[in-house]
Amino acid sequence: MQLDEAARAFQQFVAVVRALRTPGTGCPWDLEQDHQSLQPYLLEEANEVLDAIQRGDDRSLQEELGDLLLQVVLHAQLATDRKAFSITEVVQGITAKMVRRHSHVFGSTKVSSVEEVKRNWERIKAAEKQAAAAELRQPPEVDENPRNPLVPPD
Questions:
Q1: CA distance 54 to 60
Q2: Which pLDDT score, from 0 to 100, does residue 138 have?
């Protein structure tokens, strides 16, 4: 499958899930779901993926990966519905993470073994967590010259 074909298929799938969650025209079952109610399905689908892998059953693996993808896209749609984040941000986030954590592929880091790759991964992951924790401790920036939103700009 070409990359553009995969992108079109994914775009179509996201549109289907959005339609299922559209008030007035969507599916009543999908519309009543929330992150909590979907938890058992997420675990069930992940376990079914593992089962297909353990059995070496590619046909089942393909189907179960699709079911697991549904859970990812559905949870992202729920977040979109409440204006928290979108599937685009999920995909962009994991893409950026994979690029950061594979500096031996996308950067100038040199590795000579799988063990080095694992050490780098853990080092980068720890640095990311440390940076995120530091960001949470930062006080919000305050504009020293706030503008009155009721007064038009100069």
A1: 11
A2: 77
Give per-residue pLDDT as tens, 31-73: 999 999 999 999 999 999 999 999 999 999 999 999 999 999 9
Sign of the dihedral defined by the CA atoms of residues 116, 122, 124, 127, in that order = negative
Report the alpha-carbon distance of residue 62 to residue 64 in Å, rounded: 6
* Superfamily name and number for 3-85: MazG-like (1.10.287.1080)
Separation of CA 95 from chain center: 9
48 Cβ neighbours under 8 A, 6+ residues apart: 60, 64, 67, 68
Average pLDDT value for residue range 7-32: 97
The whole-angstrom separation of Cα 90 and Cα 67 is 18
Banded pLDDT at 118 (limits 50, 70, 90): very high
Q: Is pLDDT of 148 > 60?
A: no
Domain boundaries, the chain: 3-85
> C-alpha angle 68/69/72, rounded to 5°?
95
Number of residues written out for the chain = 154
3-state secondary structure of 27: coil
